[in-house]
Amino acid sequence: MEIRGKIVAVQPVQTGEGRNGMWKKQEYIIEYDQNSQYPRRMMFNLWGDKIDQFHIQDGQVIRVSFDIECREYNGRWYNDIRAWKVEPDDGSTADVGFVQAPSPPLPPPIDEGSDLPF
After folding, report:
1. What is the tens place of the pLDDT at every residue in 49-107?
2. Phi and psi torsions of 15, nearest 5°
3. CATH of domain 2-88
């Protein structure tokens, strides 16, 4: 999935140690649908080296590619919106918000020469 918007908050880097070693994570708040009366916000995160690779700053307008994952812990379920690619928005369209996924291919055209009544 992909979203475009403006970064309105950059949270501090979180670090810890898990069974696979040290980890670090940073969360960001992006505001999209800014032309609406009530702009929407979403929090996404980056893990490990991607934090330094993308160097996201407050106020930056970006395009974020992400996956939504869900996991269970102690009988509760949690969503995780994990970004895998971040790039500056080129401003190709005026509206900042969700980017539509590609449409499925259209069915082949109907053969007008067939004997079917429909």
Report:
1. 999 999 999 999 999 999 999 999 999 999 999 999 999 987 654 444 544 444 455 55
2. -130, 160
3. 2.40.50.140
